[in-house]
Design a protein that fits this description.
It is globular and about 45 Å long. By secondary structure, it is α/β, with parallel strands linked by helices. The N and C termini lie far apart (40 Å). It has ten helices and eight strands. The longest helix has 21 residues, at 49-69. It is 39% helix and 15% strand. Strands 1, 2, 3, 4, 5, 6, 7 and 8 form an eight-stranded mixed sheet that branches. Bound molecules: S-adenosylmethionine.
């Protein structure tokens, strides 16, 4: 990205943005010096983060493809991030070009890039909305007009809830979304899990994310994700690291449950 030229006033390039840091982990070019600095710091704390980010994207692609093939015709991607190589609408539209996709993110830079990508796109749109206000997000006029919540919707909270430190708010976000879902809908969650890292490494990671747009990164394990999804049907293989959720290659299925990971869960309502 050309550094700092023609930026809307709402975008501060000196504060590391988790959207742009993630773009950097994925090898993208839509990031600034402050993002790259923070991302490099985090890479020294957790050297596997780039592979984890790529595995997270690959998981998202597998799930969207699977659900589109199973007949889901509406997707709401909350915290969609900067457009990357394979976005939800591109994956779903290979199955059916009529699939409706709404991207929601609270980072204004995602909106700028998303609008450019989706200009003139009939069935996809991007809105600025905050998951910490889930009722307002679901009532957003463009979401309400694009999606029919009386029919199945797949809602993605992929690499998102770890940016909310308050447990009660995480519970409310998931519960509010679940209340709106018609039978046959799906909720897809991926979440950072620190595993057995030392207290020092954990604190070093926290320190990096304290300086970012979200101000925090909270680890949660499989038990907590299961609690959030209790009463829904977890698709096989349950809650596992993203690379082990129905991998393309047998070799990716083995994992150590104590190691740092991005955990994945896909639940049917
Ligand atoms: N979901 C994508 C994926 O997993 O490939 C992108 C994940 S990226 C790590 C996290 C995204 O969540 C960023 O684009 C960030 O702007 C967005 N985000 C963080 N907090 C948010 C909030 N409270 N409301 C909406 N979006 C948020």
């Amino acid at each position: 990205m050309a550094e700092h030229t023609n930026l809307p006033a709402s975008i501060d390039p000196t504060i590391p943005s988790v959207a742009r840091m993630y773009d950097y982990y994925l090898g993208g070019k839509d990031n600034f010096a402050a993002d790259r600095r923070a991302a490099e710091q985090f890479i020294t704390v957790l050297p596997g983060i780039r592979e984890m980010a790529r595995a997270n994207r690959a998981f998202l692609a597998r799930v969207v493809d699977l659900l589109a093939r199973e007949g889901i015709r509406q997707f709401l991607d909350i915290g969609s991030g900067l457009p990357t190589q394979e976005n939800v609408h591109q994956i779903a539209h290979r199955v059916d070009p009529e699939v409706r996709v709404v991207y929601a993110d609270n980072d204004p830079i995602v909106l700028v890039h998303g609008r450019a990508l989706l200009a003139d796109h009939r069935h996809s749109t991007v809105v600025q909305a905050d998951m910490r206000e889930p009722e307002a997000l679901l009532a957003h006029p463009e979401i309400v007009s694009a999606l029919d919540f009386d029919r199945p919707v797949a809602v993605l909270l992929v690499s998102m809830l770890h940016f909310v430190p308050e447990e009660a708010l995480v519970t409310r976000i998931v519960a509010t979304i679940r209340e709106r879902l018609a039978p046959g809908s799906h909720l897809i969650i991926t979440h950072a899990f620190a595993g057995d890292v030392s207290a020092e490494v954990h604190e070093a990671g926290q320190q990096v994310y304290r300086s970012t747009t979200t101000g925090s990164l909270t680890s949660r394990g499989a038990d907590r994700l299961a609690e959030l999804l209790a009463g829904m049907t977890l698709l096989e293989p349950g809650i596992v690291p993203v690379q082990a959720w129905r991998p393309d290659y047998e070799g990716d299925a083995a994992f150590d449950p104590a190691k740092p990971a991005i955990l994945a869960a896909v639940a049917r309502h």
